[in-house]
Amino acid sequence: MNRVCFSLLFVGIAVASSSPAPNRVAADVVPVPQTIVPKRMDDVTPRNVVFILSDDHRYDAMSFMGHPLAKTPHMDAMAKNGVHLKNAFVTTSLCSPSRASILTGLYTFRHRVIDNQRAVPDGTVFFPQYLQKAGYKTGFIGKWHMGSANDDPRPGFDYWFSFKGQGQYYPPGPNYTINENGKRVPQDGYITTVLTDKAVNFIKDNADADQPFFLYLSHKAVHGPFTPEPKYKSSLADLPFTLPPSSVLLTDNLRNRPRWLLDQRNSWHGMDFPLHTGSPVEAFYKSYCEALRSVDDSIGSVMQQLKDLGIHDETLVIYMGDNGYMFGEHGLIDKRVAYETSSRVPMLMQCPEILPAGTVVDEVVANIDIAPTVMQAMGLEKPSYMDGQSFLPLALGQEIPWRDYFLYVYYWEQNYPQTPTHFSLRGDRYKYTTYYGLWDTDELFDIQADPMEQNNLIYDPEYADVKQQMQTRLYDMMDDLGGMEIPLNPPRGRQQNKRLRKRDGVKSADFPEAMVVDEPLRKELK
Ligand SMILES: [Ca+2]
Questions:
Q1: What's the gap in Å between 152 CA and the centre of ligand 1?
Q2: Which residue in 224, 306, 459, 501 has its CB near the most CB atoms, within 10 A?
Q3: Distance between CA atoms of 428 and 466, rounded to whole angstroms?
Q4: What mean pLDDT is predicted for residues 98-120?
Q5: How many Å lie between the centroid of ligand 1 and the Cα of residue 241?
Q6: Which helix (H) or strand (E) holds 432?
């Protein structure tokens, strides 16, 4: 699957070196222009695109993946009738940063929406602005969640239906309202259904227009606290459940796991004190999968509307999650970290007119690729400043240059101090993660031999060269992409920093065995 590393920004990472190159010159980072100039592709007929995003849906929670709890017939149908991009990732596993990457085509260190607390910087360009400028009809329906101060319509959309922050599964009171094109309207019922109804109406209203449409349907579900629709509540309660093997408590650190990881187990984002409750992970997981059933129904409703209007086969539909989620993996809940279950997302695509049914794409695709992909489907060239690349050719079976290494970044949040800043590089076989600004261990995994990331190879002499190559490549890549500075923000909001005493809450984890010595290392100094 590895093809020649692709051009422009990624030229600098094509060749691995075993030691840092002091005279290396980083590739130029193309700045984001402030004028929107869409460039049409002569050889592409623009088509309608529906992009459906869900919240916190992990990559494997679909029934066709063999998941023990999820029931997702419409997602299964998308994979059967279209394309399953089975190695889909997000560049930062967190709601706002991931959404900003989808909308800008940029890495987090470039769009600078580094957490869930802050607004988008002035001057940010969202890719639907190009679509709108090209004359297409654009609609945004659902969770925006970049800036909680207001839910005013954002640039790039002809139709707008959105709410502040996370939104609500049910209206919290009689006066709760949603912003529809600048007017306050009540939320009439369960949020997934409300958003789906608006989406279906948008498609109906725009199907006969002279120009194609772009719909961005952005679900609140399945973000916690997980609230299933009444018809699905407790529908999975009786299914058997087992925690993942990586959830087993380690009472020492002979396997050289990071201290922060072992400490996080007893925290807001750990399975021993999840969200500071005593609730079992099993109950969380089942509610999550029950809420997901309504998202799956939403896909079914959109598909049915496309069929009813006779535009099903010509419309490109993309489904993805904004980040993964852990239910006991590594002793954690939640996302943020670079581990597979957190950074991987479901990605499905369907367009029977052009995409062969049952296609599986192996290449690593990401949230930064959505903007270029949608733009290509609508006959517009990708702006050169974007970090991502259209994966439409991959789905068509075309041989194109593609990334061979994937960069992941996460920036420490004062609100959730359990998870450190980290940078991670994932190739076909190895994954290297460094935790920055922390006296702790880095990690190296052979993800082919050890897909659950349990055996840290970072201290194994046999892998010293691999570690060095991955480290060099990671920093070269960040240099080329403009990621060598860490964005900072002042504290804001609550800090979830508590531990539960009865679960060893006053003790910190052991240092990794490889970092502990029994004798002085410099015996010549008395
Ligand atoms: Ca999310």
A1: 21
A2: 306
A3: 13
A4: 94
A5: 24
A6: strand 430-435
Least confident of 80-89, 457-466, 485-494: 485-494
Residue 24 falls within a domain, yes or no? Answer: no
**pLDDT, averaged across the chain:** 94
Percent of the chain with pLDDT over 90: 89
Q: Residue 463 falls within a domain, yes or no? A: no
Tell me how many degrees the CA angle 47-51-57 measures, rounded to the nearest 5.
Answer: 155
Say if 483 falls within a structural domain: no
Ligand 1 centre and the CA of 324: distance in Å? Answer: 8
* Distance between Cα 360 and ligand 1 center (Å): 25
Q: How many CA atoms lie within 13 A of 358 on its CB side?
A: 0
What is the value of pTM for the model shown?
A: 0.95
| Residue at 438: amino acid letter | L
pLDDT tens-digit profile of 294-351?
999 999 999 999 999 999 999 999 999 999 999 999 999 999 999 999 999 999 999 9
Q: Provide the token pair at 473.
A: 């490549």
User: Cα–Cα distance between 234 and 247 in angstroms, integer?
Assistant: 24
pLDDT value, residue 20: 54
Q: How many angstroms is it from 451 CA to the middle of ligand 1?
A: 23
Residue pair 299/30 in contact (Cβ under 8 Å)? The answer is no
For range 236-254, the mean pLDDT: 95
Give the CA dihedral 177, 183, 55, 207, nearest 10 degrees.
130
**Residue 318 C-alpha to ligand 1 middle, in angstroms?**
17
Query: 90 CA to middle of ligand 1, Å?
Result: 11
Predicted confidence (pLDDT) per residue in 50-108, tens digit: 999 999 999 999 999 999 999 999 999 999 999 999 999 999 999 999 999 999 999 99
In sequence order, what are the residues at sequence separation of 6 or more whose Cβ sits closer than 8 angstroms to the Cβ of residue 328? 243, 244, 246, 247, 271, 281
> What is the DSSP secondary structure assignment for residue 171, as one 8-state letter?
-
Total domains in the chain come to 1
In order, the DSSP letters of 454-475 are: ----TT-GGGHHHHHHHHHHHH
Burial 432-441 (b: 16+ CB within 10 A, else e): bbbbeeeebb
Look up tokens 């052991």; give the residue: 510
CA of 387 to the centre of ligand 1 (A): 21
**CATH number of the domain that 160 lies in?**
3.40.720.10
Domain extent for 279 = 45-404
Task: Tell me the pLDDT tens digit for each residue of 397-436.
Answer: 999 999 999 999 999 999 999 999 999 999 999 999 999 9
**Token couple for 372:** 């270029």
Contact status, residue 83 vs residue 349, Cβ threshold 8 Å: yes
Angle at 48 between CA 42 and CA 54, to 5 degrees: 125
Radius of gyration, CA atoms only, the chain: 23
Residue 334 — left, alpha, or beta (φ > 0 → left; ψ -120 to 50 → alpha)?
left
> Would you say residue 490 lies in a domain?
no
Which pair of structure tokens corresponds to residue 262? 């072992």
Distance 184 CA to ligand 1 centre (A): 25
Q: Report how far ligand 1's centroid is from the alpha carbon of 516 (Å).
A: 38
